[in-house]
Amino acid sequence: MGYYLELIALFWFLVCWVGYTWYSRNRASTRACLSNTLDMYREDWMRVMLKRENRISDASVVGNLERNGAFFASSCLLILAGIITALGYTREAMEVFATMPFSAVPTREIWELRLVVLLVVFVYAFFKFTWSMRMYNFVAVMIGSAPLPDDTKTSPAAREAFARSAGNICNLAGDAFNLGLRSYYYALAVVAWFIHPMVFIAASTLVVVVLYRREFQSDALAALRAGKVFEEPVPGKQAAETTPKS
User: According to the UniProt entry, where is the signal peptide (predicted)?
Assistant: First the structure.
């Protein structure tokens, strides 16, 4: 029964991780959240950037965002090195955990499975953070090639297309960073697995609840929405306008 409980806990963890990622991505298309709100701010940032002759501040902001990704990516490498080292000292680590209260010591195979799952989580996070860094590098290049305000050869339509394209790259970079950061939350749930599979299940569920509240119901989201005027259709108005008159 204990072996099946381990597999059930792992399955529930995957459901929480993959399921919430799918849910948040699809829910963002119909409901206000941190992701789509920041997307609008980033596009506005690119439009404002095109009106400035001096883009040093914009390049500085992009550099800071890129350094944030570099910090977490380097942290992932250190954590991965620690996990790989722990795989070589499985017996010693199991003896330490056996002395802890409320901890269920599994078989060597299950213990190594837990370490491998933790390893995979941080490998995934590393790839997301490095991809975010690279895309912020793309944004820096686009800022450097952006047309100047007094450039009469660039039409307003071309400027808008450029702002949307640069904003989209910036949004993709932010989304990749967000997915990498979420991996740290899920890694904490995996750490709870070393205590007991039921604690792992509870921790995985708690992580989803925390992520949902911060993404869709946080005070930060309310503050961001309050700082921008959104032209949203009045409920029922659009349907009334599209209904053919008899």
Answer: none
Q: pLDDT per residue over 130-141, tens digit each?
A: 999 999 999 999
- For residues 88 and 30, what is the distance between their CA atoms, to the nearest angstrom? 48
| Rounded CA separation 220/226 (Å) | 10
Only one residue has tokens 């914009």, namely: 58
pLDDT tens, position by position, 99-137: 666 666 677 788 888 899 999 999 999 999 999 999 999
Please state, in angstroms and rounded to a whole number, the distance separating the CA atoms of residues 117 and 6: 12
Q: Could you tell me the pTM of the whole model?
A: 0.85
Q: Which of 57-71, 83-97, 106-120, 154-168 has the lowest mean pLDDT?
A: 83-97
Residue 49, both tokens? 């950037």
Closest CA to 45 of 157, 131, 174, 150: 174
Place of tokens 């307003």: 156
Contacts of 11 (CB under 8 A, 6+ apart): none
Cβ neighbourhood burial of 16 (10 Å; 0-12, 13-18, 19+): buried
Residues 134-138: contacts with CB under 8 Å, at least 24 apart:
135/169, 135/170, 135/172, 135/173, 135/176, 136/62, 136/65, 136/66, 136/69, 136/170, 136/173, 137/66, 138/169, 138/173
Using an 8 Å Cβ cutoff, are 197 and 8 in contact?
Answer: yes
